[in-house]
Amino acid sequence: MKIFDIPGFPNPLRIRIVLAEKSLASRIEFIKIDLPGAEHKQPAFLAINPTGTVPVLQLDDGTYISECTVITDYLDNLDGNPTLTGTTLKEKAIIHMMQKRAESELADPVGIYFHHSTPGLGAGLQPYKSPEWEGRIEWGNRQRDKAVAGMKYFDQVLRSQPYVAGEQFSMADITVYAGLVFAGFASLAIPQACTALLAWQAKVQERPSVKNPA
Questions:
Q1: Which distant-in-sequence residues (6+ apart) come within 8 Å of 157 by Cβ?
Q2: Shared-domain flag, residues 128 and 98
Q3: What is the pLDDT of residues 70-114, one digit of tens each?
Q4: CATH number, residue 143
Q5: In a domain, 12, yes or no
């Protein structure tokens, strides 16, 4: 299998943590995509993934699979022993619910703020951003505020349970963690009052898969 991504970026990090959790790194060939150079917006890459985003998983039969949640679900179930996406219907439902919230309330708002209200990844991607329009910066700042509100939400969740979706580490935790990494890129600090979230972050950072992702 192959994965098209770039090391160190938030969404690729999500899948690299999954690979480490599942001991699958040895089965993967990594193809580096130049995000600052907008390689993911060029025809050759768009033929692989029309949404122009990384990571993308290529199976041995040539099939391309994009979207982190889908890739995670596929990799987690390859061995018939899912550890990140749930085993019972209830576990799966809660994990996928919290996964969606991790994206919509934290990771996505941080991304919008980073790419549209800051210099983002630089001039190479500027032609692919939304054109300037009145209120754009204000809109981006609202997304920044939404991301901070998301941090406060997950702080409340983690005050009553050890992980984002309950008692076990799951893909929802991976997404929240990557969202916080992205927030760091965008200079958005976790509020100091979010003590549960900060303690959870410190705990997750000590996981072998997070300390040494694929």
A1: 98, 164
A2: yes
A3: 999 999 999 999 999 999 999 999 999 999 999 999 999 999 898
A4: 1.20.1050.10
A5: yes
